[in-house]
Write a structure and sequence with these properties.
The structure is a homodimer of 234-residue chains.
Chain A (H helix, E strand, L loop, with lengths): L23 E9 L3 E3 L14 H4 L1 H4 L16 H7 L5 E7 H4 L24 E5 L7 E3 L2 E6 L3 H11 L4 E4 L3 H9 L5 E7 L7 E2 L11 E7 L5 E7 L2
Chain lengths: 234, 234
């Protein structure tokens, strides 16, 4: 630790990013106790299939820092710290196609611009993984790019777009698995919620699967969530 | 919770600060198990008096996000989330005179510009509480102002300088007590470390003293620290 201890000792440097490469970070991804990141049967009306988003995400919507909060109030404890870190030093996002919309196969309607409204909550370039590319477009301060490439290539593009900041890996579970399998994820926060889905799209059988490569803090919250904070061993 | 569930439903708003007033936040203030924020006998050479800063602050200097880290590496678990939130949405700091320097009484040497080096780690205006005002000065992107006023007045000045962002209350313990006694603190993160100081400047006899006005999450960390995350009841 460098600590200023008097005028004779100059502070030799600060942590202003120069020592740290760009990270790929999964920020508060929520899974059920049985390991599913989303339910079965995604549709336009049910982005999470049979899973009830109100139940899955109650922990973060209760926090003051949740980026889609529309009213004052909310808690400012542990869950809030982990929620409000969402966009800290993030310069781009990578997401799977199913986080953008429920369509499968070729796009049939370019007019439809995703689930995220006219002012998407990303505020950065977003790289949507798809085998069916379409032209980029911008909504407010978010630009969506559609890319058909392997995880390492997409990550390279996203890091360039992030201009020195980190890249968020936004999900869904299949996309996170692909990047984990390619060993490209640096940090991963998974909130395990006290909900059983029984079926759906799985992130893991158990968090222990990651312990060969990651260190982890397991932190229970009074909301009933068990936070798993993974970071890659150096 | 507002969650986008289809193109027919517009996202009506986001948490971009418009619903939330400016907060006064104490960010990762460290105290000993027996409640002292600093030791006895502060001097130029020993900013924490008889307390050993290496022991008191080991928990945060181990993290990747500690703002004075000068080398790569560090942990990225719970302690890191709580450390790296330090400057998130902070537009000004208020500190007591003893966090600026060890002098008591009238300033005898205006050449001496504080403990924080040529590039102070604040990057915002800093309001130093003192009965002995002196001219403001700027080091890199930090400007120090010296003010002789009651807590409410200083907070008003700092909020104006923060231009809509929050204000950090930087300590030391006496300063935090003054703002707590004036009921001006909105959130307070205190890291209780497994160190006994026996004497020094006290923050509290017990964290329970704050429970009449604050809600709290008490979160043990594997570093041995017990994090106390307080927020004022609305």
């Amino acid at each position: 630790m460098i600590f200023p201890v008097g005028p004779g000792l100059t502070v030799v440097g600060h942590n202003e990013g120069e020592h740290v490469g760009q990270l790929l970070r999964v920020q508060h991804f929520t899974v059920s106790r049985d390991g599913f990141g989303t339910g079965e049967g995604q549709s336009l009306e049910r982005p999470f299939g049979h899973a009830d988003p109100a139940g899955m995400f109650a922990w973060r919507s209760a926090t003051a820092g949740w980026f889609m909060r529309t009213e004052p109030g909310g808690t400012r404890g542990l869950d809030d710290y982990l929620t409000r870190d969402y966009d800290r030093n993030i310069g781009a996002e990578i997401m799977g196609r199913n986080k953008f919309g429920p369509q499968r196969g070729p796009w049939e309607d370019h007019e439809w611009q995703g689930w995220w409204g006219d002012r998407p909550p990303f505020h950065t370039p977003v790289f949507v993984l798809t085998h069916h590319v379409r032209p980029s477009f911008t909504l407010a301060d978010t630009t969506f790019h559609f890319v058909d490439a392997d995880p390492a290539t997409v990550l390279e593009q996203a890091k360039e777009a992030a201009e020195g900041k980190d890249v968020r890996l936004g999900g869904g579970p299949t996309t996170i698995r692909e990047f984990l399998d390619a060993d490209l994820v640096d940090t991963l926060h998974v909130a395990v919620v006290p909900v059983e889905l029984g079926s759906g799209v799985r992130l893991w059988e158990s968090p222990d699967e990651l312990l060969d490569r990651f260190d982890v803090d397991v932190v229970p919250s009074r909301s009933g969530v068990i936070h798993h904070l993974f970071w890659r061993r150096s």
